[in-house]
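Lab manual, section 2.4: Encoding a predicted structure.

Procedure: take the sequence of the chain (183 residues), apply the prediction step described in section 2.3, and record the output as structure tokens. A sample record is shown.
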Amino acid sequence: MKKIFFFSLIIIFNISATISYKNKIITNLENVQNLTFNFEQNINGKVENGNCTIQYPKKIYCEYDSKNKKILVANGKSLVIKTNNPSYYLYPIDKTPLNLILDKNFLINEIKNINERIIDDKFINYNFVKDEIEINLFFDNNNYDLVGWQTLDIYQNLSITYLSTIVKNKKIKENLFLIPQFN
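Recorded output:
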């Protein structure tokens, strides 16, 4: 009888911890209008660094620390990658994984309906597939901030992005998410 009681307590604790994680992550996401952060991105072993600003929904501006001064900008409809080569790459955002990652309402709804994994007692991971795009999201186990994601890019390359030095709800410039002009 004691064993049944003990195992019942463990199950109840695990269920309440799962609900607690979800609720805290959802509350955190609901209270975030924008994020500014440093990043490290690894695409098939090629590592790049820089800083980004996300404004929900579906806007992002990233400057890469690279010789070619790469910039990535999404305005909610289009995604542009510009370099000083000069090269421009223009994509509809809805054809990229960022379309989902930058939509916090979508993320909240997905998190409500899936189970998480706890990784090394440091990260809370949610994995989901939508429109043939698989995304792994990682949240900090202490403050419930989004700290990274893993997905396949539009060329089917494994892309892992790690966020650090995260600042929430910082005042940002209105024109930050304007698509660069093609020259």
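Check your result against the sample. The longest strand covers residues 158-168.
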